[in-house]
């Protein structure tokens, strides 16, 4: 069974990687642009090259930046974080927003381990929602003030100033599956072009990067020799971290690693603006009651929407998954709700997934999706109809706050919520564990 799961995961991973490679072609040096600064109220004040950013709803969207050297925080009493030694995470080529979020989260863990400040790199919106060159500001995604309680957070412009526009060393952990290593150059050179054209930051040439595993590991051990370090796809340092899934030996043996991970998941919180929108939504979604939230992501939607997808194969697979959804999945979700005395559910789902609410409806007293968020109740919610990037963040916040969360396996979106909830001792269940699912079919849930 384990061999079968390895084989299936390899196939899924290769397919996803090819999707990412195709998608990454959309980001070119000509297409790259800086994050939007149209809002006149968003004013950047740089007091020094090392600064900590916060967003406070009391002062609209102003970005206050203070010299972190006077109040650099610690995650343990006997370890301090250096405010002039930086880690720049590189993740703008390779996956959607939540894959990027999880890469940043991995970079925070490494920054704590190496006692360095973390650079707040923006994110690229999902290919199915926005053009691939749509960069989103870091501070419209995560609460930099909260993260700053854990370690100094440095804007990308400060990295440029302090490091004179040059990355001294690139750390490149090998991917989980060896064939991916050969594809690194495509993503690496794409990222190099993007960082150069957008922030005037220069990477070392790809030919200077170690090619063997031994040399790459030695590079990690020599990190202390450099102030200005970048790490390419930092998520690969920790391997494939999925519950009850395959386990890979991490690239770095981090002492107290579980503690560092837990602190990271606690402090990497969505921005206050997203939390305020969620407060408004939850006034009318399962108001005042215990509720379940699930992330429903039928992967045939992604696979079958790609150009060149085999219609017959997609139709056959879609029919099989629909039958399983109507029986095994609905029964499993309803049973979890019954066992936890819950009769209200919120379903977070992308537009291409099948409408599970139609078959779950008879099993719950109240059922909600993003379709039920009414902008008539509060005009501030109109952004959720206009901007799917913000909607996704709000739905993750809803899932994080729910009494019980149902997770899709092998999903970066679910992974982020699961780790956040487990760090805060909140309950989670996984669809793939439902009785009756075969090994192959479980990969789609």
Helices and strands in order, then pairings?
Blueprint: H1 2-24, E1 51-55, E2 63-67, E3 86-90, H2 97-114, E4 117-120, E5 123-124, E6 135-136, H3 144-147, E7 153-155, H4 156-162, E8 169-171, H5 184-199, H6 213-221, E9 228-232, H7 257-267, H8 272-281, E10 292-295, H9 300-305, H10 311-339, E11 344-348, H11 357-360, E12 366-368, H12 383-386, H13 388-401, E13 404-407, H14 412-423, E14 427-430, H15 439-442
Parallel strand pairs: 3-4, 3-9, 4-7, 8-9, 10-11, 10-13, 11-12, 13-14
Antiparallel strand pairs: 1-2, 5-6
Helix pairs in contact: 2-7, 2-14, 7-14, 8-13, 13-14
Description:
The structure is a single chain. The strands form four sheets. This protein has a five-stranded parallel sheet with strand order 7-4-3-9-8. It has a five-stranded parallel sheet with strand order 12-11-10-13-14, with helices on both faces. Helix 14 (412-423) links the parallel strand 13 and strand 14 (427-430). Helices cover 38% and strands 12% of the residues. The protein has 445 residues and is α/β, with parallel strands linked by helices. Residues 1-78, 128-132 and 242-248 have low confidence and may be disordered. It starts with a helix and ends with a helix. The relative contact order is 0.12.
């Amino acid at each position: 069974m384990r061999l079968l799961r390895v084989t299936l995961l390899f196939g899924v991973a290769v397919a996803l990687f090819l999707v990412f490679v195709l998608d990454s072609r959309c980001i070119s040096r000509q297409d790259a642009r800086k994050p939007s600064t149209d809002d006149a109220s968003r004013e950047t004040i740089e007091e020094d090259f090392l600064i900590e950013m916060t967003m406070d709803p009391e002062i609209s969207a102003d970005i206050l930046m203070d010299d972190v050297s006077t109040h650099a925080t610690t995650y343990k009493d006997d370890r301090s974080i250096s405010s002039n030694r930086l880690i720049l995470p590189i993740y703008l080529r390779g996956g959607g927003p939540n894959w990027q979020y999880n890469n940043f989260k991995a970079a925070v863990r490494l920054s704590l381990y190496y006692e360095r400040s973390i650079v707040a790199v923006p994110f690229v919106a999902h290919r199915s929602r926005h053009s691939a060159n749509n960069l989103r500001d870091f501070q419209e995604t995560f609460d930099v003030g909260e993260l700053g309680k854990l370690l100094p957070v440095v804007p990308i412009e400060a990295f440029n100033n302090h490091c004179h526009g040059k990355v001294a060393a690139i750390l490149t952990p090998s991917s989980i599956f060896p064939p991916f290593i050969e594809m690194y150059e495509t993503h690496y050179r794409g990222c190099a072009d993007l960082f150069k054209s957008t922030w005037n930051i220069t990477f070392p040439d790809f030919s200077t990067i170690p090619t063997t595993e031994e040399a790459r590991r030695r590079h990690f051990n020599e990190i202390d020799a450099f102030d200005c370090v970048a790490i390419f796809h930092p998520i690969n340092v920790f391997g494939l971290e999925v519950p009850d899934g395959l386990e890979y030996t991490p690239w770095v043996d981090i002492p107290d690693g579980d503690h560092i991970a837990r602190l990271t998941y606690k402090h990497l919180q969505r921005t206050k603006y997203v939390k305020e929108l969620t407060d408004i939504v939850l006034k009318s979604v399962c108001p005042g009651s215990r509720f379940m939230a699930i992330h429903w992501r039928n992967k045939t939607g992604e696979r079958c929407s790609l150009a060149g997808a085999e219609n017959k194969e997609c139709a056959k697979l879609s029919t099989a998954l629909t039958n399983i959804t109507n029986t095994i999945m609905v029964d499993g979700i309803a049973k979890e709700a019954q066992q936890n005395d819950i009769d209200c559910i919120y379903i977070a789902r992308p537009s291409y997934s099948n409408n599970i609410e139609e078959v779950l409806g008879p099993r719950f007293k109240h059922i909600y999706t993003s379709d039920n968020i009414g902008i008539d109740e509060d005009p501030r919610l109109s952004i959720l109809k206009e901007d799917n990037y913000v909607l996704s963040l709000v739905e993750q916040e809803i899932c994080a706050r729910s009494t019980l969360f149902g997770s899709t396996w092998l999903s970066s979106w679910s992974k982020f919520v699961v780790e956040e909830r487990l760090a805060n001792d909140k309950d989670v269940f996984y669809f793939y564990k439902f009785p009756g699912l075969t090994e192959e079919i479980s990969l789609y849930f």
